[in-house]
Amino acid sequence: MVLGSIEAGGTKIVCAVGNEQGEIYDSINIPTETPEITIPKIIDFFQQHDIQAVGIGSFGPIDIKKNSKTFGYILQTPKLAWRNYPFLDAIRDALNVPCAFTTDVNIAAIGEYTHGAAKDVNSCLYITVGTGVGAGAIIHGKLLEGISHPEMGHITVKRHPKDSFEGSCPIHQDCLEGLAAGPAIETRWGKKGIELSDREEVWELEAYYLAQAIAQYIMILVPEKVILGGGVANQASLIGKVREKVHDHLKDYFVTPEINEYIVTPELKNNAGIVGGLVFADRMVRK
Ligand code: ADP
Ligand code: ZN
Which residue from 179, 192, 238 has its CB within 8 A of the most atoms of ligand 1, so it is best to mutate? Predict the structure, then answer.
């Protein structure tokens, strides 16, 4: 089956055509400008292919409640041009094929669950640490969704006693995202994460926050695999520190599989989301 996939982030939108096995035939990167500029480019790309369905993963917050009047809309995003924008309708009406809609991190979770690091287990948690912090969970093949999609990046973590950075979340200030996302690292230390590789204390503090959150996600959701992705997770020394600190949090009371095999980086690398979108589209057609 020829399927379409859209991974819509705050800076760029990746569109791909492929199949449910995760094979990608063609793809394009489009900058996230205004819907008026960006949506026609997306439509134009897909019109060059004979696709049967599209899986969409969007930056949020979004409305995923099927019986809601604003189902498929982007909601109160700081990106004003996209606020209250009917993303799903715009794609579906133009392409006239079934379209499935969820968050960008949820499609990455589906990708890793089906064809990546979690393909041999029945549940997983995919966390992204980039411009924001977000996570998606899959439990026995189903996305964890309820009154909304999860907002795991905005939980409260215990502040490090030596950290006086006020936090960069526009809503909560010092939630996990406000203390640990890429922009928080940049503002706290005065340089981009990628330029701070040799500063041990940066990644110790980063792991201090991420490990607290991950230990809590693990105890609540009991996933069989935890995948840590996003730009910040490209920092090579981070995952080892996170594993160590998660292990310290859980002590010997809460036993996980061997930590190096339990908390891992995405097997599909940067393609997790786009592959997940193809699988999500396929699920939609089969329903
Ligand atoms: P987005 O969240 O917009 O989809 P990314 O996941 O690529 O994009 O995250 C971008 C953030 O990750 C930026 O804040 C950037 O500074 C940070 N980042 C990217 N690469 C690295 C790296 N190697 N080490 C640390 N931080 C990084
Ligand atoms: Zn927040």
Answer: 192
